[in-house]
Structure formats: structure tokens, C-alpha cells
Amino acid sequence: MRLRNDLKIYDPPKNYRRVGEKRMESKLRLKQKIRRNALVVDDEEINRMILGNILENDYEITYAADGREALDILNDKKNDISIVLLDILMPRVNGFEVIKEMRADPILNHIPIIVLTSEKQSEIKSLNLGASDFIPKPYDSPEVIKARVNRLVELAEDRRIISDVERDQLTGLYNQGFFLEYADFLIKYKENEARDAVWINIDHFHLINEIYGRDFGDEVLKTLADTLKVFVSIHNGIASRKSADDFLLFLDSIPDYAELEALLKEKVVNRFPDHNLHIRTGIYNTHLKSIDLVTAFGRAKVACDSLRGNFQKALGYFDDKLQKELLLDERLIHDIHKGLEQKQFIAYFQPKMGVDKDIPYIAGAEALVRLNHPDLGLVPPSVYVDLYEKNGLIQFVDREIWRQAASQIKKWKDEYGITIPISVNASRIDLYDPKIDEHFFDLVKEYDLKPKDLHIEVTETAYAEDANQLIEAVTKLKECGFVIELDDFGTGYSALNMLLEIPIDVLKLDMKFVSSMYDSDKNIQLIKIILDIANMLNVPVVAEGVETEKQMEDLKNLGCRIIQGYYFSKPVAAKEFEHLIKAQKE
User: Fold this and answer.
1) CA 527 to chain centre
2) Preceding amide of 138 cis, omega within 30
3) Which of 36, 81, 128, 546 is the most buried (most CB within 10 A)?
4) Domains of the chain
5) Does the pTM of the predicted model rise above 0.70?
């Protein structure tokens, strides 16, 4: 195995290159069996039919009568079109504009374009814009046309296959598929040597692209890639760009990655000192004899993800603690549907107490999920709520809690003659459901409730991620008569924007304000400002996390009329909540 001086990274050995060549040959054989799709664009129907008749034995033909229709088809079938035969002079959007848009698109850019024209100047202009070839009108040489089309399709596909086989175009690192096959070869080449699987990620890289632009983001990625090339060349390793800002390393095992941390800080972070770059590195050390590469890098990713948001730490190792957490996550994901069937997910209720009268009273309640697992016992929500949200499973749990809350409102109404509004959480996953209003409306109809009996809590996180989606969903729910509560208000940058754009009925003051209200006079003043804003908007405020009588009295004196927290009650099961109802009635 020899070391290249220009890239400082190991080249595949010759026998491994033959493996890559064979894989490419098999792809070439496979593509010969595929019937490709040609797009014929011409405003004259007779011209479209002539070209269709010439190519129909070898291609599936799609037709467009002008440039606008062609672009719509291309955007809908980006990965299906193999070649475009394009007239230049057309209504609405001409052929030159089509060429420009295709060449500006990173996917459409790979599709060859044959220009159909009888004007020499149009041929030259279209070739300068990025056309691949031209066919003169009239079409009097069918065999020549077929040969040109076939040759361009083959050349375009061969270029893409060769590009896909080995390297990422932006960074010059191996792409993921080639990287994993090469790493597998290295294991067989020296099977008794310990190696490390390393996962590297730039924290919140999408924000860097959004704030400073994609060109700047690409510069950061290329700088990081060049630094990794140097590092793996020192430690007999290889490097890959897996996706946008995820990088993989496979190298001889080393006891301490402080060298890599220092190198990344010097060459990458310090090069862009005003941009707060945080590069996370997860390491999994193993001989890899009893574990596959995908699992190894999966564990390196777990170590990397454990550092998310921790700007004081840049290196993480997959250890016994992370192993236990990973196994627990896998168990919770595996057991979720059985848990729903067996009613392991239970709604607990924490009262919201009105304090605007001499004697506090139950003004409502919040439904909070609890998991009573048969083997794991009572599992805290902090363990599984984020996990289920990341994996798109939280909506199943949410709907179960919504149903239990609606059932409980009905039960207490029938047994005690009072209606206690209950608020339920709607995660950002729920809010992406275009039928969320129907789900809630069907629920209140099933239990003979009024929409105002069920309060729906949304958080600022959903607004920050997709403001338009949240506004649309909340507006529909509001129009159905549901009460909308804004949870954790006041902690993020977009909180005031939400008040202006979303029809909110209730503000829930984040418990961090309550827990820190005595840290300084400014904190008290800030709470007062929030209460004044709410009063101006004519919406009540619920103060969460109230644990002492002093907190309760001071919040009451500041103008807060609804209190939620351990001072009155922790979240309790329905039976225990009924004791509070009975006490109030007595």
C-alpha cells in the first residue's frame, strides 16, 4: 500500500481497484438493460411526433409543447429523464431559458441536451449555454439522430457512474459507498489490528449556510476535509464525506484524540474566528472482528450526538454508559406499539389553580404522559419523549394521551357535574399533520365535549422550525373552537413574533422564569413585563413550576391569576386527582 504525496491519503491497492472496476462494469451492464426516458420539447406537434417515432423503440418518450411545460416535467421527474431534445423558438419559455435553468440545477445539470434548430447562431449560443449537441431541422437522417442520442446518454451515464464510484465532488474525500468497501478491505488486510471508527459533525451547520450563505458553508467543509486528509495520512486511515456536514474516518486506533481536536481548532475553527464553529467528534474503538462497519459507525455517531449543544466539549467516546442508553433507546422504540396496546402510556394530570379568589380553585389541568413499562418500571418522560419525536413516533403517544384526556373530562363531568378543561401537548410532528383539526374535532365529538374543553399546547420550538406550518395548523384549530396555549413562553428569540402571528388564548410562563425570579430584580421586572404584555393582549398567563408559597404570592401580586406547580400538586393519576376535585366540592 503506497502513500500519495499530493493528497496525503492512502490509495486503494491495485487488486481493490479491480473490485471497483468490476462494480462499475456491472453497473454499465445493468444500465444497458434499462429503458430510458427521453423528453422531446417542441411547439410543433408534427416535429414532436417525428422525433418520437424515431426514438420510441429505444426510449420511453415524454412530450412538452413549450419550455414552461418542459421545466415542470423536469422538476417533477429529475432523476427519470435521461436526455432532453429541445427546440429553441417556443412560446412562454424559450429553449435558451430552459438550458439556463437546467444548468443551474445541480441534478438537472447532468442531463444532456440536444438542441433542435435550423439556425447557426442558435446552435452556437445554445452550445455556449451548456447544450451537449444539436440536430438540424428537418429531421431527414433517423439513424444519425438515434446514434447521437444514444452516444450522449451513454457518455452522461458513464460520467455519473465514475463520479459516484469514488469521490465527493466538493471535498475530494471518498464517498460513503466506496469508503465502506475500502474500510472493509482494510479490515481483511490487517484483521488483527485495532482501528477506530470516527464520526465528525459541525454543530448547527444548517444555520451557517442560512446566515452566511452556501459558498461560505462550502468553504468551511473544504477546509475541514483538507484537515482530515492530513490527519488520516498520519494514522494510516481513510476519510469520507457521508452527507452535508457529516464526515467519517477509519484509521489505526490511537489512545488520545487531543491531537485531532487541536488540529481542527487550529486549521478550521480559528480560520473562521467570528462564526462560532463547534466541531463534534465521536469515537468508537474496536477490533471490528465481531461487529460490522455500519454498526461501528452507528456507535461513533451516538458518541458524536451525545455532544450536541455542549460547546464545552468536542470529543466523545462510545462507552458503557452510551451502550446502556443505546440499548434502552432501542428497547423503547421496539416496545412502543405493544406499550400502546397494553395501555402502558398513562395520562397524569397536574392542576392549574386559579388564585384570583380568596380560596384557590381548580381552573383546569395539564395532561402529562407517563410510561409504566412492565420490565423497566416508571420511565421518566425525559428518556423517551425526545427519542420518539426524533423517530417520528411521538404522534402515536400524543393521540393516546389526547384520548385519555378527553375521556377524563367526560368522566369528571358526568360524576361531579363540573367541566375541567384539560390541556394536551401537540408536538411539531403532530402539527405537520394536515388533518390535525379533524383528529381533535372527532375526539370531542366522540366524548360529547365542546372544543373549548380541550386546550392544545404548542411550543416555540415548532414555530422556530416551521413558522408557516404552525400558523396554519393553529389557525385551523382555533377556527374549530379549540383553546390554544403557548407553552414555555419567553425563552426563545421568536416568542414575541409568535404573539403577533399566531392566535393564542393562553400564555404559559416558562418555569425557568419562576425558578430564577429571585436571582435579581431584573428577573422580577421581566416577569412583570410579560404579564403586562399578556394583559394588553387580553390573554391569561399560567405560571409553571411554582413550588413555594412565596413564589405563588408574589406572582399573584404581580397580576398572575393561574398557578401550576408542585406547591399545589405534582402530576398525579386520575384517581388521585379526583381527591382534589372532591376537596374543592366540599
Assistant:
1) 34
2) yes
3) 546
4) 34-164 (3.40.50.2300), 176-318 (3.30.70.270), 327-585 (3.20.20.450)
5) no
